[in-house]
Design brief:
Layout: H1 2-8, H2 12-15, H3 21-37, H4 53-57, H5 62-78, H6 86-97, H7 103-118, H8 122-132, H9 138-155, H10 162-173, H11 178-195, H12 208-220, H13 236-248, H14 253-259, H15 282-285, H16 291-305, H17 316-328, H18 332-349, H19 354-366, H20 373-387, H21 392-402, H22 408-422, H23 432-445, H24 451-468, H25 470-473, H26 482-494, H27 503-512, H28 529-538, H29 543-550, H30 581-589, H31 594-599, H32 605-621, H33 629-637, H34 647-663, H35 668-681, H36 688-702, H37 704-717, H38 721-738, H39 745-756, H40 761-778, H41 791-804, H42 832-836, H43 853-859, H44 864-881, H45 891-898, H46 904-921, H47 929-939, H48 945-962, H49 965-968, H50 972-978, H51 982-995, H52 1010-1017, H53 1022-1047, H54 1053-1067, H55 1080-1084, H56 1102-1116, H57 1121-1128, H58 1130-1134, H59 1137-1146, H60 1158-1167, H61 1181-1191, H62 1197-1203, H63 1208-1221, H64 1226-1231, H65 1233-1244, H66 1249-1268, H67 1275-1279, H68 1282-1288, H69 1294-1307, H70 1313-1323, H71 1329-1346, H72 1355-1364, H73 1371-1388, H74 1391-1395, H75 1401-1429, E1 1440-1442, H76 1443-1447, H77 1451-1468, H78 1487-1491, H79 1496-1499, ...
Antiparallel strand pairs: 1-2
Helix pairs in contact: 3-5, 5-7, 6-7, 6-8, 7-9, 8-9, 9-11, 10-11, 11-12, 16-18, 17-18, 17-19, 18-20, 19-20, 19-21, 19-56, 20-22, 20-28, 21-23, 22-24, 22-28, 23-24, 24-26, 30-33, 32-34, 33-34, 33-35, 34-36, 35-36, 35-37, 36-37, 36-38, 37-38, 37-39, 38-40, 39-40, 40-41, 43-44, 44-46, 45-47, ...
Length: 2033
C-alpha cells in the first residue's frame, strides 16, 4: 500500500507515464475526467498531454489500454491541438489496438480514427490505415479495412480519397485469410455505391467467383446516390442542413449528386507501355506489298491499343504509319482496322494524343468518301476519339477545308462530326469567333442537293443552337427561311448535351467519353439515336470490352506519392502471394543442398559461414527464371536470421540478399521479409556497407519510391540514431542513382522534419544533406516547407541549398529491372509530363473547405473594413497552405469584384493575393484565367501608377505559370484593347510587345486585336502611339505582313495610308522567332527535371503550349497555300503607286538577311521533328509551304515571291538574281545555303528544261565559289540536296547529264568523297538504267582518285553491290560496273576477286575478259610513256608490301597533301584577303589531335619493309592476266616507285620513333645517290609535310613523355636534320617546296630552336646548331619567291600573335628576312616580284605604319622598309610595273611608299638610266658622297669593335671593299692598334677564302686571328640585338673542323670509331640488299650520325690537295658507291652484334 500511496500523490500526466499499470490506469481515468471538464478547446492544458496520447493507446496492459483509449478519444474530440498527434496515434492504434482480442478496444480504435478524420486529418489517417493493410497480422488488416469502409460510408468519397483504396482492393481479394477477403468484399460494395461502374475495370482481373459475387451484391444496391452522414468540423453548416432535412423527412438527392466527386476509371488504371511491345518488323510489314502482311501488323497493333490507358511516348511513327494506311491503302478492310487502331491510341493517350490530332483529322475527313458502313463507322469512332483529345478550335480549320468538297459523303460526315462535337461544348468553349465560320459553312449545306447532307447540316446547327442558345445563334440565322429554321429548332429539341447531364450521365460525359475505361451503360444516358449514333460509337466501351482489355494490365501497386506515373520500362513484379515456410523450404531445396539448409541454423558460426558460401554459389549458378526469391530470403531470415552475431556470416547474408535482388524476380513481398533486418544493420560499422548495397539492389528490383518509403518509416520507428542517419545518407545517394521519379515527397518531408528535430547531430546533418539532394530536383519550392524551423537549422538548410545552386541533377545510372529477362534493356525515356510537372510532386492543400460562406460574405461586404478583414483572412489561409489545389470554391468570382473595388488599397491587396495564389497554385491557375486573369488586365487602366505596377507584376506572375496561350485565346484581350483608356492601352501594348517575341506561335485570335492596334497608331496620346509602333513588329512576327496588310483594308483611306507606312517600317524590325526550347533536362535527368531557381514553377507554361501550337501550325501549313497565294498580290493591288516605287527600290538591296544561328536552329528543329524532314519521292505542298515559311525571315520578300510563283518564268528570274548576287553576297548565300539547296531540289521536279538548265548553271557557279571559299557542306545540306541531284544524273538529255556529272565532280571539293560514295551507292537502287550506269561511272572515278579507302561502309560490301550490277539487263549498266571493277583491279590486283564475292560463271568470264583488254591497253600506254619520257621505271619484285599498308596508304598525309594543294591554289589566285594563306577550319588538319593519337589500331603502320633500290630501275613488266584462283598471298603486291616512296614517306610521320628513323634512312639513301635523286621529284611537299609533322609530334608528345629515352629523340632529330640538309643541298628538289609547306617548315624549325627543353640535354645545343645550319640551307636553296612569301606571311601571323607569343619567334623570322634581303641582289632576276609585293601589300594592309610604330620594337618596320628599299634599288622605277596582282592598291601604303623610295633613289643616282640599273643588278649603281662613305665605314668599324657583331662587321667590310674598290680604309685603320689592324686583315682574308672556296684557314690561324670572337658563329636563334643594316647568317662559313672533336665523341659513343680513316669517311646507308628488315639497333644508331658523316666527308674532301674543291653533295654522291655502301653496312651490323 505504501507504493500505491506514493503514485497516488503524483500529478495526472506523471501517473500516465508510471511504470505501474495501476498508476497508469488511474491516470487515464483522471485524465478522461479532466478532458471533459476543460471548457476551452484552446486551453494550454491540452498541450501538456501532446506527447502522451500515443502512450494512452499503446499501453502494454490491456485494461489500462482500454481506459487510455477512452481518454484519448475524449482528448481528440475536444482538444484544438489534437491534430498534431494524428500520425503517431493512428499508427499506434493500427499496430497495437487493432490486434487486441477485445472488441471494445477495436471499436474505440476505429472511432478514434474517424474522429481524427472529423477534425480535418483525413490524409494521415488514410495513409496509416493503408499501411496497416500490408501488416502480416490478418486481424489488423481486417480492422483497417473495416475502418476505411466506415469512414467512406460516413464521410463520403469527397472526404475519403478513393483512388488509393481502389488500387489496393485487388491485392486484398488475393489474401489467404477469408476474413480479409470478406471485409474487402464489403469495402468494394461500399466503394461501388460512390463511383458505380468506374470500379469495374480495376477489378476485372480478380477471381471470377469473387467478381460474380460482387456483381450480385452491386445489383442489389439502390440506384440512388449515397449521402454523407458525418461531417468535418468545417462542414457544420452542411451538418445542420442534413439534420434539418432528416427531421423534415425530405431528400436532397439532387444536391448530393451534384456534390459527389466524379471518379474517372482511367485515372485508376496503370498505363501500359506498347511501343516496346510492337513487333520488330512492324514498320516493314505495314508498308509491305501484300495486304495480308499489312493486316498482320495492324492486328498486332490493335491488340496493344486495346489497353485502356497507354504510357506516353513518341507515337509519331505509329501515327504516321496509320495515317498512310487510312489515306492511301486501297483495301477497305485495312482502312477500317487502321481507324480502329487510331481510335484506340487516342482513347488510351487522351490529352497526350493532342499533338498528333491535327495531323490525322484531315486524312480521316477525306476518307469519308468511302461508302461501306464498316469503314464509315470505324472512321467515325476514330475522329470522335481524336476530337476528345483536343479542342474544336484546333480542328475547325481542317473541318472547314472539307465543307466545300464535291463528295456529298464527306460533307455529310463532316457535318455529323460537328454535331457530335458540339455536344461536348459549352457556350464558353464555342465562342462567336469559332461558331461564325462553322455556321456559315453549315448554312451553305442546308441548301445542298443531297438530302443526307442537308439533314446532317440541320442536326449540326440544331446542336449548336442547343449549346449556345438562340440569342447567340440568331445573328447567324437571319437569312434562313422559316421552314428551314423550324427544322433547325426541331433538331435542337431532340439533342441532349453531354455536359448538361446529371449524375451518371455527367460522369460518363467527363470521364467515359474519351475512351475505353468507362461503361456507357448507366441509366439515363441514352439520347436520340439519329443524333448520337456516331457519338455513342466513339465512346462505346462496354464492360465486356473493358474487361478484355484490362486483363492484360498487371495488378501492380504504383509508387505511392502524388505522381503515380512511373517511367517506361519500370513495371516490376510487385505483388506476390506470401508462401508458407514449408513451401519455401521445398522451393529452396531445388537450389540449395540439404546440408546447406541444415547448417543455416547451426550453432557453430563456421558451419553457418560455410553454408552461406554454398548458398551464394547456388544462387549464382541458378537461372533467373528458376530462382525462388521469396523462398530463399525466408531461408535467410530463419533463426538466427537478422540477429546473427558473427559479422562475417552477416556480411555474406547481406551480400546474398543483394545478389538475389539483382538476379531474380524480386517482389515486394520478398523485400518485406528482409527490409527490417537491413535497416537494423545499416548503422553497423562492419555490415553497414553491405546493407546499403542490398537496399540499392532491392530498390532496383522493387522501385526506389516504395523501398525508400518502407525503410525510412522503419528507421524512424526505431530509436537508433545511427540507423536513421545512415538510412538518410543512403537515400540521398540512391536518389542520385535512380532519379526522382515517383518519390513520395510528402512522406519524406514529414520524415525529414522529424530528423531535423532529432537530438543527435548526425541525424540532423544527414537530413540536411538529403534536403540538398531533393533541392536538386525540386528547386526553390522545397524551402517553403521548412520555413517554420529554427533559424539556426534554417541557415544550415539554406547553406546546403546554396551549394546545390546552379548544379544540374546527375543522369541516373540505375533503373528498375523488369521481371522478364528479355525486357531488361529499359530505355531511358522519362515521361514528359512527369518531368515537366516537378511541382506536382509537392503536396498541395485543398483550401476549398476553408473558403467558407462567412469568408465569402466578408469579401463582398459593403463596409471596406470588413472587406479588408476578409482579404487578410484569405491571405493568412494562403500563407498557411503554401501550395494549394485549384479547388477554391466561390473565391474567383468574389476576388473579381474586389479588383473593381473603389478603395485602391484593397485593389492592391487583392492583386497581391492573386499573385500569392499564382505561386501557390502553380500551373493549375490557368483554369482561372478567364474569370480572374482578364480583370487583372482591366486594372492596367487605373490612373494610379502604383496600382498599374502592381497589376503588371500580378499579370506577369500569372503568365509565368500559365503561358500566353490562355490569354491570347478568344476575344477577351481584343475587347480590353478596344477600350479607349490611354493607360490601359499603353500598358497592355507594352506588355504584349515584351511577351510576343518570346513565343514561337500564337493563337489566331491575335488577329482580332489588329483593328484596335491600328486605332492606337492614331491615338491622341503620344505614349499610346509609341507603344503601338513598338508592338507592330512583334505582331508581324507571328501574323505576317500579308495578314496585317489585309486587316488594314477596312480602315478609312487616310488611316490606311498611315497604317501601311507604319507596317512597312515595322517589316524591317521584325524579330526572329525564338529557338525551340531544349529538352536536355527531360533526356538527361530520368525521373524529374528541376526548374530554374528564378522560374521554378514555370513548368507547363508558355513553352509547352507553344510547342503544341507549333506542332499544330506545321500540320496546317499545307492547307494555307491557296489563301497565301491570294494574299501575295494584295499589296500590289491595294497600295498606291508610291509603295510600288519603294518596292522597286527595295530590289536593289541585299537579297539575303543574315540571322545568327538560324541555320543551326533549322537543323535542330528538323532533328526534333518539329518540321518535316526533307525526304520525299515527290514534293508535296506542305514541303513547299514549310520552306517558304523558313525563308520568310532570311530572304528578301520580292525574291521569295519570285521563287514560289506558279509561273516558271518567275523561277528563271529568281535564278538570275541568285546568279547575279552570288559573289557579292557570298556570306548570305552560305547562311541560307540549306534553304537555297532545298528550293533547287524542288526545281528538279519541274518539267521545264529552261529552269533545269538555269538551276544547273547556278549550281556550277555556286560550288565553284564555295570551293574557293573552302566551305564544307553540312550533313543537313548534303542529305537534303545530293540524293536529288543524283536522281538527275539519269536524265534522258545528254546536256543535262553532262552538267550534273560536272557538278558531282565539284562536290568532292565541298563534301567528303567517302560520304559522296555512300550517297551515289544509294543511286544504284534506282529503276532508271541511265542513272545506275552514271552512278557506277562516278563510283569508278571516285575509286580511281581516292583509292579503295573511299568505299563505304567497307570495300568488300561496296564492291559486292557494284558487282551485282554486272548481271544487269542493260548494256550500259553492265559496262559501267565492269569498268568500275577493273579500276579496282588496277589498284589492288587479284584481291578484287575476293572483295567482289561469288559471281556466276557468265559474269566472271565477262569480268576476266574486260580485265585482259584493260591490261593490253595499259601496257601499250606504258610503252608510249617510256618512249616519251626516256625514264624507265621498274617494279621491285622483292619489295612485297602487305595489303594492309596499301589500303591504308597514309590517309593522314593524303589529307595534309590535299590541304596544301588547296592552299597553293588559293595563294596562286593572289586573293587580297587576309585569309589567303590560311587554311579554313573545315579543311585544317588537327595536328595536335594526330600527334596525341597513339591508338595502335588506328594509325600505327606495319614494320618497315626494306626495298631494293637496285631493282627500281629495271624495265616495267606487266604480267598478262590469267584465269586463276585467288592467290593465298593476295594481300601482297608489287608497287611502283611512286607508290613505294609514298609508303616510306608516310612512315616518316609515324608515332613510332624506330619506324620513322628507318623511313628517314631509306629516303636519305635515295637523296645521296645522284642516279636516284630524281625519283623524289614530285614528292618533296609530301616529304616535308611528313617531316614537320614528326617535328610537331616530337615537340608536343615525345619531349613531354618522361618515359621515353631522350637519346632516342636526339637520334630522331639528327636523322630529320640530316635528311633535310641533304635535301636542301639539291637545288632542283629544294625549289619544289611550295610556299605553304615552307611556311610550316620554318615555323617548326624556329619552334625547335626555341625549345628550352633541348638545352637540358647533353647533345641539345648541337641539335640547335644543326637546325641553324639547316635554316641557312633552306633560305639559300629554296625557291626565293616561295621562301620570301612564306617568311612575310609567317611574320604577319607571329605579329598577330596567332603563331607564337614569344618575341624571339618574330625576331628570328626577321633575321631570316634580313638574310633573304642580303641574297636579293643575286636572286632578283628569278624572284616573282609581283607575288612578293602582293604579300607585302597584305602585310601593310594589316599592319599600317601607325600600327607598326605602336609596337615595342621598331624591327618589323625597319625590316619592311629595308626589303622595299632593296627592291627599289635593284629594280628602279620599273618596280611600279610589278603591282599587277594587287586589286585595290589603296588598301595599303605600299604604292605611295614605293614612289617615295624610287624618287629618292633617282635623285641620289644622278639620273642613271634604267638600263644601267638593270646591268648593275648585283651591285649598288651609284657612288656615295665622301660624307656618306665616312659614315658607312664608321658604322662598320664600330661593329667590328663590338664582340657580339664582329663577324658581321667583317663581312660587311669585305662586301663594301668589293663593291667600292676605290674606297680607302687606311684613315680608319691608322687610328687603331696594330693588333686590331692584323685582326681586320686576317678576318677579311678568312671571309674571302670562304666566299671563293679556296681552302680554309687552319685551326691555328683561326684561333690566333679570332681570339676575341666567340667559338661558334652567330646563330639565327641568338638573342643578340638586331644589326642596323641586316644580319649575316651563313652557316657554311663554319668549317667542319670546328665540330671535329664533338663529332668524334659522338662517333665513339655510337660505335663508329674505326681504324680505317677511309672507312670513316664513307657515306652510310640503311638500305639493305637483303629483303629482311634490319635490326632496329644498327639502323637507328647508324642514322644517328648521318650528319656527322656528311660533314666529315666534306672535311676529308677539302683536305685533299690533289683535286680542286667540290660541292658537298657531289662529293658525297661520288663517294657513295652502292657496293661499298652495302659492305659498309654489313660491317657496321657485325660490329654492333
Amino acid at each position: 500500500m505504501g507504493d500505491e500511496s506514493e503514485w497516488m500523490k503524483l500529478p495526472i500526466d506523471q501517473k500516465c507515464e508510471h511504470k505501474v499499470w495501476k498508476a497508469r490506469l488511474n491516470g487515464y481515468e483522471e485524465a478522461a475526467k479532466l478532458f471533459q471538464k476543460i471548457p476551452d478547446e484552446k486551453s494550454p492544458e491540452w498541450s501538456k498531454y501532446l506527447g502522451l496520447i500515443k502512450k494512452f493507446v499503446t499501453d502494454s496492459n490491456a485494461v489500462a489500454q482500454l481506459k487510455g483509449l477512452e481518454a484519448a478519444l475524449i482528448y481528440v474530440k475536444n482538444a484544438h491541438v489534437a491534430g498534431k498527434t494524428c500520425g503517431e496515434v493512428v499508427s499506434g492504434v493500427v499496430n497495437k489496438v487493432f490486434n487486441q482480442p477485445k472488441a471494445r478496444a477495436k471499436e474505440l480504435g476505429g472511432e478514434m480514427c474517424l474522429m481524427y478524420i472529423e477534425i480535418e486529418k483525413t490524409e494521415p489517417v488514410q495513409e496509416e490505415l493503408l499501411k496497416g493493410l500490408d501488416n502480416k497480422n490478418p486481424k489488423i488488416v481486417v480492422a483497417c479495412i473495416e475502418t476505411i469502409r466506415k469512414a467512406l460510408c460516413e464521410f463520403g468519397s469527397k472526404i475519403v480519397q478513393l483512388k488509393p483504396i481502389v488500387k489496393v482492393l485487388p491485392k486484398l481479394f488475393e489474401s489467404r485469410e477469408k476474413a480479409v477477403r470478406d471485409e474487402a468484399k464489403l469495402l468494394a460494395v461500399e466503394v461501388y455505391k460512390w463511383i458505380r461502374d468506374a470500379l469495374r475495370p480495376p477489378l476485372q482481373n480478380i477471381n471470377s467467383v469473387q467478381l460474380k459475387e460482387l456483381e450480385e451484391e452491386w445489383v442489389k444496391l439502390p440506384t440512388t446516390a449515397p449521402k454523407q452522414t458525418r461531417f468535418l468540423r468545417s462542414q457544420q453548416d452542411l451538418k445542420s442542413k442534413f439534420e434539418q432535412h432528416q427531421a423534415a423527412g425530405t431528400d436532397e438527392q439532387d444536391d448530393e449528386e451534384a456534390d459527389a466527386p466524379v471518379v474517372d476509371a482511367y485515372e485508376l488504371l496503370e498505363p501500359v507501355e506498347i511501343l516496346l511491345k510492337l513487333p520488330k518488323d512492324f514498320y516493314d510489314k505495314i508498308e509491305a506489298k501484300k495486304w495480308q502482311e499489312r493486316k498482320e501488323a495492324l492486328e498486332a497493333l490493335e491488340v496493344l491499343v486495346k489497353n485502356p490507358k497507354l504510357e506516353s511516348g513518341d507515337y509519331s511513327d505509329v501515327v504516321r504509319a496509320l495515317k498512310k494506311v487510312i489515306g492511301k491503302d486501297s483495301n477497305v478492310l485495312l482502312v477500317a482496322l487502321s481507324a480502329k487502331c487510331l481510335a484506340g491510341l487516342a482513347a488510351g493517350l487522351r490529352k497526350k494524343f493532342q499533338s498528333y490530332a491535327t495531323h490525322v483529322v484531315p486524312t480521316l475527313l477525306e476518307k469519308f468518301k468511302e461508302k461501306k458502313p464498316q469503314v464509315v463507322q470505324a472512321l467515325q469512332e476514330a475522329i470522335d476519339a481524336v476530337f476528345l483529345t483536343t479542342t474544336l478550335q484546333n480542328l475547325s480549320e481542317d473541318v472547314l477545308a472539307v465543307m466545300d468538297n464535291k463528295n456529298p459523303s464527306i460533307k455529310q460526315q463532316a457535318s455529323l462530326f460537328l454535331a457530335r462535337s458540339f455536344r461536348y461544348c459549352t457556350p464558353s468553349t464555342l465562342p462567336k469567333s469559332l461558331l461564325k465560320p462553322l455556321c456559315a459553312a453549315l448554312l451553305k449545306q442546308i441548301n445542298d442537293s443531297s438530302v443526307e447532307v442537308r439533314d446532317a447540316a440541320f442536326e449540326a446547327l440544331g446542336t449548336a443552337l442547343k449549346v449556345v442558345g438562340e440569342r447567340a445563334m440568331n445573328p447567324f440565322l437571319v437569312d434562313v427561311d422559316k421552314l428551314k429554321l423550324d427544322k433547325i429548332k426541331e433538331s435542337s429539341d431532340r439533342v441532349e448535351l453531354i455536359h448538361g447531364k446529371k449524375s451518371n450521365a455527367s460522369k460518363e460525359g467527363k470521364a467515359g467519353a474519351p475512351g475505353k475505361s468507362c461503361s456507357s451503360s448507366s441509366s439515363g444516358d441514352k439520347v436520340d439515336s439519329s443524333a448520337t449514333k456516331a457519338g455513342v460509337q466513339a465512346k462505346k466501351t462496354s464492360s465486356g470490352k473493358t474487361a478484355g482489355a484490362s486483363k492484360k494490365v498487371k495488378a501492380v501497386v504504383p509508387p505511392s506519392g502524388p505522381s503515380g506515373k512511373g517511367k517506361k520500362g519500370t513495371e516490376v513484379k510487385e505483388v506476390e502471394a506470401e508462401l508458407a515456410i514449408e513451401v519455401c523450404e521445398e522451393k529452396a531445396a531445388a537450389v540449395l543442398s540439404a546440408s546447406c539448409l541444415q547448417q543455416l541454423g547451426s550453432s557453430n558460426w563456421k558451419e553457418r559461414l560455410a553454408s552461406m558460401e554454398e548458398f551464394q554459389k547456388g544462387v549464382e549458378v541458378t537461372e533467373r527464371k528458376m530462382l525462388p526469391c521469396q523462398a530463399l530470403v525466408r531461408m535467410l531470415a530463419k533463426k538466427p536470421g537478422w540477429k546473427e552475431t558473427n559479422f562475417q556470416v552477416m556480411q555474406m547474408k547481406l551480400y546474398i540478399v543483394a545478389l538475389i535482388a539483382q538476379k531474380g524476380s524480386f517482389s515486394r513481398t520478398s523485400a518485406e521479409v528482409v527490409l527490417e533486418g537491413l535497416v537494423d544493420k545499416i548503422g553497423d560499422i562492419k555490415c553497414g556497407m553491405k546493407a546499403k548495397e542490398a537496399l540499392t539492389a532491392i530498390a532496383g528490383a522493387c522501385s526506389l519510391p516504395w523501398t525508400a518509403e518502407q525503410v525510412v518509416a522503419m528507421a524512424f520507428a526505431q530509436k537508433n540514431p545511427k540507423n536513421q542517419s545512415e538510412i538518410l545518407n543512403w537515400l540521398a545517394g540512391a536518389i542520385k542513382e535512380f532519379g526522382f521519379a515517383g518519390i513520395n515527397v510528402k512522406a519524406f518531408i514529414s520524415h525529414v522534419k522529424t530528423a531535423l528535430a532529432a537530438t543527435n547531430p548526425a541525424v540532423r546533418t544527414s537530413a540536411v544533406t538529403l534536403l540538398g539532394v531533393m533541392y536538386l530536383y525540386m528547386g526553390a519550392p522545397l524551402r517553403m516547407f521548412f520555413e517554420d524551423e529554427k533559424p539556426a537549422l534554417l541557415s544550415q538548410i539554406d547553406a546546403e541549398f546554396e551549394k546545390m545552386q546552379g548544379q544540374t541533377p546527375p543522369v541516373p545510372n540505375r533503373r528498375v529491372v523488369k521481371c522478364d529477362a528479355d525486357e531488361q534493356e529499359a530505355t531511358e525515356e522519362p515521361d514528359d509530363e512527369e518531368n515537366g510537372n516537378v511541382q506536382d510532386l509537392l503536396p498541395r492543400t485543398d483550401i476549398g473547405d476553408k473558403i467558407t460562406s462567412d469568408l465569402v460574405t466578408k469579401l463582398g461586404d459593403k463596409n471596406w473594413k470588413v472587406r479588408k478583414e476578409g482579404l487578410d483572412e484569405l491571405s493568412t489561409v494562403l500563407n498557411e497552405a503554401k501550395l494549394i489545389q485549384p479547388n477554391v470554391g466561390e473565391l474567383p468570382g468574389v476576388l473579381k469584384g474586389r479588383l473593381n473595388d473603389s478603395n485602391k488599397i484593397l485593389v492592391q491587396q487583392t492583386l497581391a493575393i492573386l499573385q500569392q495564389m499564382a505561386i501557390a497554385m502553380g500551373p493549375n491557375i490557368r483554369q482561372h484565367v478567364k474569370i480572374l486573369g482578364i480583370p487583372i488586365i482591366a486594372v492596367l487602366g487605373d490612373s494610379k501608377n502604383n496600382v498599374r505596377a502592381a497589376a503588371l507584376a500580378t499579370l506577369n506572375s500569372w503568365v509565368e505559370k500559365t503561358g500566353m496561350k490562355e490569354w491570347l485565346d478568344g476575344e477577351d484581350l481584343s475587347e480590353e484593347l478596344k477600350k479607349e483608356n490611354p493607360f490601359l492601352r499603353q500598358e497592355l501594348l507594352g506588355w504584349l510587345a515584351e511577351k510576343l517575341p518570346t513565343l514561337r506561335s500564337v493563337p489566331t485570335d491575335l488577329l482580332l486585336c489588329l483593328p484596335s492596334l491600328y486605332s492606337c497608331l492614331e491615338d491622341r496620346n503620344g505614349e499610346v502611339r509609341k507603344k503601338a509602333q513598338d508592338a507592330l513588329p512583334t505582331f508581324m512576327m507571328h501574323l505576317g505582313y500579308e495578314k496585317m496588310y489585309k486587316a488594314s483594308g477596312k480602315l478609312k483611306p487616310a488611316s490606311k495610308d498611315q497604317v501601311v507606312a507604319a507596317l512597312e517600317k515595322a517589316q524591317a524590325l521584325v524579330p526572329a522567332k525564338p529557338a525551340a526550347p531544349a529538352k536536355q533536362s527531360s533526356k538527361s535527368i530520368a525521373g524529374a527535371a528541376r526548374p530554374s531557381s528564378g522560374a521554378s514553377a514555370r513548368v507547363n507554361g508558355a513553352s509547352t503550349n507553344d510547342e503544341v501550337d507549333a506542332f499544330k501550325s506545321d500540320a496546317k501549313k499545307g492547307k494555307s497555300t491557296g489563301v497565301a497565294s491570294k494574299l501575295k498580290s494584295a499589296p500590289n493591288k491595294k497600295v498606291p503607286s508610291k509603295p510600288n516605287i519603294k518596292d522597286d527600290d527595295d530590289k536593289s538591296g541585299p537579297i539575303f538577311i543574315i540571322v545568327s544561328n538560324a541555320k543551326e536552329q533549322r537543323v535542330r528543329d528538323e532533328r526534333a521533328l518539329k518540321v518535316l524532314k526533307w525526304n520525299f519521292t515527290t514534293p508535296r505542298d506542305e514541303y513547299s509551304e514549310q520552306l517558304k515559311n523558313q525563308m520568310s525571315c532570311c530572304v528578301a520578300k520580292w525574291l521569295q515571291d519570285e521563287m514560289f510563283h506558279t509561273d516558271f518564268h518567275h523561277h528563271i528570274k529568281a535564278l538570275t538574281v541568285l546568279l547575279e548576287h552570288l559573289e557579292s553576297e557570298i556570306e548570305g548565300t552560305v547562311a541560307c545555303l540549306d534553304l537555297i539547296l532545298k528550293w533547287l531540289t524542288l526545281r528538279f521536279f519541274d518539267t521545264n528544261t529552261s529552269v533545269l538548265m538555269k538551276v544547273l548553271e547556278y549550281l556550277k557557279l555556286l560550288f565553284m565559289v564555295l570551293s574557293k571559299e573552302d566551305y564544307h557542306l553540312t550533313e543537313n545540306e548534303a542529305s537534303s540536296f545530293i540524293p536529288y541531284l543524283i536522281n538527275k544524273v539519269g536524265e534522258p538529255k545528254d546536256v543535262i547529264r553532262k552538267d550534273v556529272r560536272s557538278i558531282l565532280n565539284m562536290m568532292c571539293k565541298v563534301y567528303p568523297a567517302s560520304k559522296m560514295f555512300n550517297l551515289i551507292m544509294e543511286g544504284l537502287k534506282s529503276k532508271n538504267s541511265k542513272q545506275r550506269a552514271e552512278c557506277l561511272e562516278e563510283l569508278g572515278a571516285l575509286i580511281e582518285v581516292y583509292d579503295l579507302n573511299v568505299c563505304q561502309p567497307s570495300p568488300a560490301k561496296a564492291l559486292k553491290e557494284i558487282a551485282c550490277q554486272i548481271g544487269d539487263r542493260d548494256t550500259s549498266v553492265r559496262n559501267a560496273a565492269l569498268n568500275t571493277i577493273v579500276t579496282v583491279y588496277n589498284i589492288c590486283g587479284d584481291q578484287v576477286f575476293k572483295l567482289i564475292g561469288n559471281l556466276s560463271e557468265k559474269e566472271m568470264s565477262m569480268l576476266e575478259e574486260r580485265i585482259k583488254r584493260s591490261a593490253k591497253k595499259s601496257s601499250t600506254l606504258s610503252r608510249q610513256l617510256e618512249e616519251k619520257t626516256q625514264r624507265p621505271q621498274g617494279i621491285n619484285q622483292n619489295a612485297a608490301i602487305p595489303r594492309k599498308s596499301c589500303e591504308e596508304v597514309p590517309s593522314k598525309l593524303k589529307i595534309m597533301y590535299r590541304t596544301y594543294r588547296i592552299q597553293a591554289r588559293s595563294s596562286n589566285a593572289h586573293s587580297a584577303s587576309e585569309s589567303a594563306h590560311t587554311i579554313p577550319k573545315e579543311f585544317q588538319l588537327d595536328l595536335d589531335e594526330i600527334e596525341n593519337d597513339n591508338n595502335a589500331g588506328g594509325c600505327e603502320l606495319p614494320d618497315l619493309v626494306q626495298h631494293k633500290l637496285d631493282d627500281l630501275y629495271e624495265p616495267v613488266c606487266i604480267p598478262e592476266p590469267k584465269n586463276r584462283s585467288v592467290s593465298p598471298h593476295y594481300d601482297e603486291m608489287h608497287g611502283t616507285t611512286d607508290f613505294t616512296i609514298n609508303v616510306v614517306v608516310s612512315q616518316v610521320a609515324s608515332s613510332d620513333i624506330n619506324t620513322s628513323i628507318q623511313a628517314l634512312a631509306q629516303i636519305d639513301e635515295v637523296l645521296r645517290q645522284e642516279s636516284k635523286v630524281d625519283t623524289m621529284s614530285g614528292h618533296i611537299d609530301q616529304f616535308l609535310i611528313a617531316t614537320f609533322m614528326q617535328l610537331r609530334l616530337i615537340y608536343n608528345a615525345h619531349m613531354a613523355n618522361e618515359k621515353l629515352n631522350k637519346t632516342e629523340i636526339l637520334k630522331l632529330y639528327s636523322c630529320i636534320i640530316g635528311n633535310m640538309i641533304t635535301l636542301f643541298q639539291i637545288e632542283p628538289l629544294a625549289k619544289e617546296a611550295s610556299m605553304g609547306v615552307l611556311k610550316d617548315l620554318m615555323h617548326g624549325l624556329i619552334l625547335l630552336m626555341l625549345d628550352s627543353r633541348l638545352e637540358d640535354l647533353d647533345e641539345g645545343p648541337q641539335v640547335i646548331r644543326s637546325v641553324n645550319l639547316l635554316m641557312v640551307k633552306v633560305l639559300e636553296k629554296s625557291d626565293p619567291t616561295n621562301i620570301l612569301s612564306s617568311l612575310i606571311v609567317l611574320l604577319q601571323d607571329s605579329l598577330l600573335a596567332t603563331t607564337n607569343n614569344s618575341p624571339m619567334f618574330s625576331e628570328i623570322i626577321m633575321k631570316c628576312l634580313w638574310r633573304m634581303i642580303r641574297l636579293l641582289p643575286n636572286n632578283v632576276n628569278v624572284v616573282n616580284v609581283d607575288r612578293v609585293l602582293l604579300d607585302v601589300h597584305n602585310f601593310m594592309r594589316i599592319f599600317p605604319r601607325e600600327r607598326l610604330k605602336q609596337m615595342k620594337s621598331d624591327l618589323p618596320m625597319r625590316t619592311q622598309k629595308t626589303l622595299l628599299h632593296t627592291l627599289c634599288k635593284l629594280l628602279g622605277p620599273k618596280i611600279m610595273d610589278h603591282l599587277t596582282l594587287i586589286e585595290n592598291k589603296n588598301e595599303s601604303e605600299l604604292e605611295a611608299h614605293l614612289r617615295r623610295v624610287t624618287k629618292h633613289s633617282m635623285a641620289l643616282s644622278g639620273g642613271k638610266t634604267d638600263s644601267e640599273t638593270e646591268k648593275g643588278g648585283s651591285t649598288i649603281g651609284y657612288k656615295e658622297s665622301k660624307a656618306k662613305i665616312s659614315e658607312t665605314l664608321a658604322e662598320i668599324f664600330k661593329k667590328i669593335g663590338s664582340k657580339e657583331n664582329t663577324r658581321e662587321g667583317l663581312a660587311e667590310l669585305y662586301e663594301y671593299r668589293k663593291k667600292n674598290s676605290d674606297a680607302d680604309i687606311e684613315p680608319f685603320l691608322r687610328k687603331t692598334s696594330h693588333q686590331f689592324q692584323n685582326y681586320v686583315e686576317k678576318g677579311l682574308q678568312f671571309v674571302e677564302n670562304e666566299r671563293e672556296g679556296k681552302g680554309k684557314i687552319s685551326s691555328s690561324s683561326s684561333s690566333a686571328g679570332f681570339s676575341s670572337t666567340p667559338d661558334e658563329l652567330p646563330q639565327v636563334a641568338s638573342s643578340s640585338s638586331m644589326p642596323s643594316t641586316g644580319s649575316t647568317i651563313n652557316g657554311e662559313e663554319i668549317g667542319p673542323a670546328v665540330y671535329l672533336e664533338r663529332l668524334k665523341i659522338l662517333r665513339q659513343r655510337c660505335g663508329f670509331e674505326s681504324n680505317s680513316k677511309h672507312e670513316e669517311r664513307q657515306p652510310t646507308t640503311s638500305f639493305l640488299t637483303k629483303p629482311t628488315v634490319p635490326t632496329v639497333v644498327s639502323s637507328s644508331e647508324l642514322l644517328h650520325n648521318k650528319l656527322t658523316h656528311l660533314r666529315d666527308s666534306r672535311e676529308y674532301n677539302q683536305e685533299q690537295e690533289s683535286h680542286p674543291p667540290i660541292q658537298t653533295n657531289s662529293s658525297t654522291t661520288s663517294a657513295a658507291n652502292l657496293d661499298d655502301l652495302k659492305k659498309r653496312l654489313e660491317r657496321i651490323k657485325s660490329s654492333r652484334k
